[in-house]
UniProtKB/TrEMBL annotation:
Keywords: Cell membrane, Membrane, Transmembrane, Transmembrane helix. Pfam families: LysE. InterPro entries: LeuE-type (IPR001123). It is a multi-pass membrane protein. GO terms for molecular function: amino acid transmembrane transporter activity. The chain crosses the membrane at residues 6-28, 40-64, 70-91, 111-132, 144-170. This is LysE family translocator. GO terms for cellular component: plasma membrane. It is found in: Cell membrane.
């Protein structure tokens, strides 16, 4: 891959990833409601999911994605249902802050599942890699080394952007000390999570 091609890919990805969408809304909602300390499984699932879409596009499997359309539709609706469940839990979450940084049993697995379903079922991400990427990069000429370079650039861009969103959400959460403020944060987070579900469901 040429540096120019990688730079174009990085710029396009930064614009796509930096603009708030269902995945970012779900991420911010999670940090606002529970803090940032245990959010890594969610982030890791988002990054792995995007790597899967990138690999799918590079391997020229967009036609297979069309063939298995109903599988992706099923993943999408599983993600929507899970996000709505999380929104319900956030809406009814206790407002006390003690112990809020301690993950629930099995929460890492649940967070990873949530991140994966949000990413694989997100039409914005799907369209970027399956439809837009081939117009930016000559997919047919990408070698294994080129794929590795694209993955490296993708991870660098996504890690920088997603961690910036986590930091901003964590800073905002730091101002929320009273029970009333926590209730507002929890319900705002529930609204963001439900909005993310609605955005995925509507496309």
């Amino acid at each position: 891959m040429t540096l120019a091609s990688l730079a174009i890919f990085a710029g396009a990805l930064a614009i796509a990833a930096g603009s708030p969408g269902p995945s970012i809304a779900a991420l911010i909602a999670r940090v606002l409601s529970r803090g940032h300390r245990d959010v890594l499984p969610f982030l890791a699932a988002m990054w792995i999911g995007e790597m899967m879409w990138l690999s799918l596009a590079v391997l020229g499997l967009a036609a297979i994605a069309e063939t298995f359309h109903y599988l992706f539709v099923a993943i999408k609706w599983i993600g929507v249902a899970y996000l709505l469940f999380l929104a319900w839990k956030m809406w009814h979450a206790p407002t006390g802050t003690e112990g809020s940084a301690i993950p629930d049993a099995g929460s890492a697995r649940k967070l990873f599942f949530a991140g994966m379903t949000v990413t694989l079922g997100n039409p914005k991400i799907m369209m970027f890699y399956v439809a837009l990427l081939p117009t930016i990069i000559d997919i047919n000429s990408v070698t294994v080394a080129g794929w590795a370079e694209l993955v490296g650039v993708m991870l660098a861009v996504l890690v920088a952007i997603d961690l910036a969103w986590v930091l901003l959400a964590a800073k905002a959460r730091g101002f929320l000390r009273s029970s009333r403020a926590m209730r507002i944060a929890n319900r705002t987070s529930a609204g963001l999570m439900a909005g993310a579900a609605a955005a995925i469901a509507a496309k």
